[in-house]
Structure formats: C-alpha cells, structure tokens
C-alpha cells in the first residue's frame, strides 16, 4: 500500500526574541507568573519585513534542502495558518510563487492550532489517492499581528514561526513497521467557538480583529480532548504508549503537555517540549518542535512519532507516523 513518508523537515523563526521580562513595561505581569502558569520563557516576534508567507517560504526551503529536493519535485503545497498574509488568495499560493513553482496546486488549511495535524492528514489523503506524489506541508503563523497587546491574559502566550515537512509517496507493507503516516484521528466541535476566537473577519466586521480566549475554559477541555484522539489513534494502529519513541504535542502550555503525557502514560523523556522557547505558535508549533528534535538527533529514521494538537473551534487531532 502507498504510505506518506517524511522525506525532509525544516523551520524558520523571526529574528527578534521577546523575553517574559520584556512584557513587564507593557502589561501587569511577571516572568514568574508566565513561567509558573505556562512554562514559556521567550517567544519570537515577526518584524515588519517578516510575514506568514516569508516565514513559510524560509521553512519550505529549509525542508526542501533537508530532503535533497527542489520546488520542481513538489506537486502540492498545503499551508496551515490562521494568520494569512491576505484574506485571499491563499498564503500557500504566495509561497508557491515565492518558490518559483509554476506547476501543481496549493491551498491553505484553517484549523487554528490543530492546522498542521489537519494538513498532514489531508496531504496523506492526496498522496494515497494518487493526486500528489510529493507534498510540502507547512504550518506558519504571525499571531503577534492579531494579539491585543493590552490583554495580559493572551498577549504573553503566543509567538511567531514556521515549520514544514516534505511528505513523499512510498510503497509500504501495510503494517505498523512501515515508514510514514500510520493512523490519524481528527475532531472538531463548533459549540466551543466562543472560547477561543478572533473578534473580526471579512464577512462580519470587515476588520482583521483580535484574538480572544477564555483560557481557563480551554484549559479545562484540553487534556480530555487530546487523550481522546490519541487513544483512538493508538487503537487504530494497535499500539500502546510504550511503543512510542517520541510524543510531539502542540506547544500551548507546559501544564497541558505534562498533564496529557501523564494521563496517557507517556514517559517524560519521550516528550518534545519547545513551548519554553517559542511560546504558542499555533499551527507552526508541531512542525517547529519536529524540526528541532529531528535536527538535534533525537528523532531518527524508523522512530514511532505521535503528533497532537488542540485549538480554536474547538478542533483537535492526532497523527501517528514512523519517521
Ligand atoms: O493553543 C490553543 C489552546 N490554548 C490553550 O491551550 C490555552 C489554555 N489555557 C491556558 O494555558 C491557561 O488557562 C492560561 C495560561 C491562559 C491561564 O492560566 P490559568 O492558570 O488558567 O490562570 P487563570 O486564567 O485562571 O488566571 C489566574 C489569575 C487571574 O487573576 P485572578 O482573577 O485570580 O485575580 C488572572 O487575571 O492570573 C491572572 N493573569 C495574569 N497574571 C499575571 C492572567 N494573565 C496574567 C498574566 N500575568 N499574564
């Protein structure tokens, strides 16, 4: 059977780093509160010349170089973002142009923080359906542009960045020993849309709007939703937490990451954590964490890797793959 295998990984972060102490003159907060409640120590913030498209392009070029490929080898770009350069066209199309790619097709995927997990699963469908052989899957965000910088309960939490994978069709045996995507579980429930949303849009206010979140409410649901999709992914694949080599969760809050790992019985040393350095980069958080752990030699070819995310909508999902 056809499997969607990882051929390359890449990432890009804005030049500017903002530390917790840098907020002390902006809102009433402290380094201590932010670290204790979230685990975040710093985040990268895009400068005027850095956009979702430019970060996505940099991550895509990094992933292509890592794969030993050029844009000519790519059939499809799926870009997960909630902070597109423009309302339309899709930022994926802008990235396609920036890469000089004059063939194939490209589109954006909007599932907020779960965007990358949705995008990987979508790319897998195109690959297994035979419509694409190689797909660039990108998560890229500039959440700093939609934050209310006077709201201490949200502005300290988010950061900017991008990560990318090159997925490639390969023949597998149909067992969990295969490399590539092995199982996935996606969910959404729009009843929760008011708990995490942006208060603007083309069809309502005609403005971009600002991020609004009832943090405590999101927190309350997070661990249960995450464990639900992960358990479904485990049962599809017929594995348990012990079989995993790496758990690469969405990086929103260290307490949510630790709580989910504990509930699922995933050993602490298997958990990839970047929230301390990147903050919550929404759809970019999982590929940024993957990029870091693959580049520093933790994730190796053949390792069993579990991706997970949960965010606005609510949307949530998990993907199991063998690197
Ligand atoms: O990626 C999408 C998914 N998003 C998430 O997963 C986020 C989920 N939520 C969270 O991570 C946490 O709920 C937060 C980090 C947002 C907040 O942590 P919390 O422990 O739930 O705090 P809280 O909202 O219950 O607030 C506790 C106190 C409040 O003061 P009072 O009402 O107890 O007097 C807040 O006003 O902390 C206050 N507070 C702050 N204090 C200092 C809120 N933000 C800050 C701040 N600095 N930045």
What does this structure look like?
- There is one protein chain.
- By secondary structure, the protein is α/β, with parallel strands linked by helices.
- It folds into 2 domains: about 1-170, Peroxisomal Thiolase, Chain A, domain 1, CATH 3.40.47; about 180-320, Thiolase/Chalcone synthase (Peroxisomal Thiolase, Chain A, domain 1, 3-Layer(aba) Sandwich), CATH 3.40.47.10.
- It has 9 helices and 13 strands.
- The strands form 4 sheets. The protein has a 5-stranded mixed β-sheet, with helices on both faces. It has a 4-stranded mixed β-sheet with strand order 8-13-12-11, with helices on both faces.
- β12 (about 305-310) and β13 (about 315-320) form a beta hairpin.
- α2 (about 50-65) packs across α3 (about 90-100) and α6 (about 215-235) runs parallel beside α7.
- The radius of gyration is 18 Å and the shape is globular.
- It starts with a strand and ends with a strand.
- The mean pLDDT is about 100.
- Oxa(dethia)-CoA binds next to α1, α5, α6 and β12.
Low-confidence stretches: none
Any idea what the shape is? globular
How many angstroms separate the termini?
A: 17 Å
As a percent range, the share of helical residues equals 25-40%
The tally of domains stands at 2
| Rounded mean pLDDT score | 98
Reported for the largest beta sheet, the result is: 5 strands, mixed
Strand content: 25-35%
N-to-C order of helices and strands: EEHEHEHEHEHEEEEHEHHHEE
Major sheet: arrangement of strands: 1-7-6-4-5
CATH H level, superfamily name of the largest domain = Thiolase/Chalcone synthase
Bound ligands, named by name, code or SMILES = oxa(dethia)-CoA
Q: If you consult CATH, what is the topology of the largest domain?
A: Peroxisomal Thiolase, Chain A, domain 1
**What is the number of helical segments per DSSP (H or I, 4+ residues)?**
9
- At CATH's second level, what is the architecture of the largest domain? 3-Layer(aba) Sandwich
CATH class of the largest domain: Alpha Beta
- Overall strand count: 13
